[in-house]
Amino acid sequence: MDSQHATLDPQSHTWLELGEVQQLLLDAYPGVVLGVDGHSRIRWINPVAAQRLGYGRDELAGRPIAGSLISQEELEARAGELSAILGEHVVADAGVLGTALTRDGVPSEHDWVLRHKDGSSHATRLNVGALRDHRGQVVGLIAVEPLHQGEGAPLRLTHHDSLTGLPTRAVLQDRAEMALLRAARQKTVLAFMLIEIDGFDALCEKYGRTVGDDVLRATAGRLHFELRKTDTAVRLDRGQFAAMLVDLHHADEAHRVAEKVAQALAAPVNVGVARLALAARVGVVWSPEHGNQLVPLLQAAEAALATLPAGQGGVAAGDPRR
Question: Which uninterrupted H or E stretch holds 111?
Answer without folding.
Answer: strand 108-115
